Structure formats: C-alpha cells, structure tokens
C-alpha cells in the first residue's frame, strides 16, 4: 500500500506509458493494440498478419477535450515520421510532420498518406477519435518501425491546448506537456481481418463510375 502510493507519485510527472492492450472500437469494429493514458490520450495500431513486405497500418488516435495528440512512428521526436491530430468540431484534422531537432515540426512530404475511416472518426461526450488507413507509412529509411519488427518503440506526445488555426492541417502546435516512448508488441496488433478493415477506407465514389 505504502509502496504503491510512493510509486504513483513518482510516475505522475513522467507521463509513464501504460502497456498497450487490445481494444475494439465499437463504432468501427476494428481491433487495435492500444496505448491509453490517464489524460485521455490514446493511440492504437492494427497490422496485417504475416506480411513482412507490408507498408500500411490502420491507426486510431485521440484524446479528451480539444487539444492535439501526436505519435512518432520511429520512437524519438527527431528525424522520425510524426503524426499530429486534433478535433475541429465533429471532424479530425491531421498531418505528417518531421524535424531534425527539438523544435516545432513542419509538415512532412512523402509517398505516405492518411485515408480516413468514417465510422471510426467521431467526437462523443468525452473524447475525439480519428481512425485512418496509413498508406505507405512503414518506411525503410529508419524514420519508422519496420514491417519485420516484432516490437516497436512508438513515441507519444500531447498538449491539451488546441492549435490556433485548427482548420489547417499544417497549423503550428504548441510543445507537448507530456511525452514519452511506449513499447508496442506488434504481434498484438496483427489481424487476419486487416484486409477487410483496410477496405473501410477505400474511396466509395470511384467504383460507382467504373462499371
Ligand atoms: C511544437 C514544438 C515542439 C517542441 C519545442 C518539442 C520539444 C521537445 C523536447 C525539448 C523534447 C525532449 C524532452 C525531454 O527529454 O525532456 C521532446 C521530446 C519528444 N517530443 Fe517533442 N516537441 C515539439 C513537438 C512535438 C510533436 C508535434 C511531437 C509528435 C507528434 C513530438 C514528439 C516528441 C516525443 C515522442 C518525444 C520523446 C522522445 C524524444 O525525446 O525524442 N514533439 N520534444
Ligand atoms: C464501419 O463501416 C464499414 C464500411 O465502411 C462497415 O463495413 C462496418 O461494418 C462498420 N462498422 C460497424 C461496427 O458498424
Ligand atoms: C467515447 O470515445 C472514447 C474513445 O473512442 C471511448 O473510450 C469512450 O468509451 C466513449 N464514450 C462513450 C460514452 O461512448
Ligand atoms: C499467420 O501465421 C500463423 C502462424 O504461422 C498462422 O497460424 C496464421 O494462420 C497465419 N495467418 C495468415 C493470415 O496467414
């Protein structure tokens, strides 16, 4: 009892990473290996089973309130592929970022892309949730984890303050008030249902005209 009280106090200032665990979003039905923090921040990953040449994943990211949540796909902040997201009314606004030092990261350009999954993107009474297919997001240049990895260090960061220009995906964000790196067991993110879930993000309109 006494020990756990002391431990809780010591960890409070470090944004101690909880252990990611499987979580199924009831709105999309997709299961993610998900890191959840007491602030409300969460980040979940879904990957295909047994595909070492895979470059894609499905992610869910969110938080409480209207601030931003971010992750580093390579663990550390610098020279890694970052994703930031925040809510704007009922929608989510997000972008890729990259920076060489500990300073505000500008938008990163590349072949990677985010394709939103509609029923996994919502705001409820307490949280905002953004779910998307991250296409070509697993890179081989050291800026992200690799498809062959069994475990990955995923960086996380958040600030409860919304960006000033919250309709603009390239908006400047204020420095995080908490950050860290969490160990993700990627085997717990892998699913045979990945291909089905991935199709939730496919453009629906194009097929109506392709017959
Ligand atoms: C907006 C301006 C930002 C500034 C000035 C900034 C600055 C910093 C600094 C100084 C550290 C080291 C903290 C420490 O060791 O005590 C750090 C760590 C970190 N930052 Fe940022 N940051 C910013 C934005 C971001 C964003 C947008 C993300 C993610 C999307 C992010 C992710 C991280 C992560 C994961 C760490 C911990 C791992 C590491 O130290 O590399 N940062 N940041
Ligand atoms: C989410 O939307 C997809 C279609 O885009 C649908 O197939 C799936 O069943 C929906 N999830 C739930 C839980 O209704
Ligand atoms: C709101 O969404 C969050 C994140 O998806 C979830 O954890 C929470 O249970 C939801 N709350 C309600 C009342 O559905
Ligand atoms: C993945 O590999 C495991 C173990 O070899 C096997 O049981 C499973 O059926 C495979 N899944 C797919 C989708 O190939």
Automatic annotation (TrEMBL):
Pfam families: CDH-cyt (PF16010). The keyword Signal applies. It comes from the Eukaryota. Gene3D superfamilies: Cellobiose dehydrogenase, cytochrome domain. Residues 1-17 form the signal peptide. Keywords: Signal. The keyword Cytoplasm does not apply. Residues 23-195 form the Cellobiose dehydrogenase-like cytochrome domain. This is Cellobiose dehydrogenase-like cytochrome domain-containing protein. It comes from Massariosphaeria phaeospora.
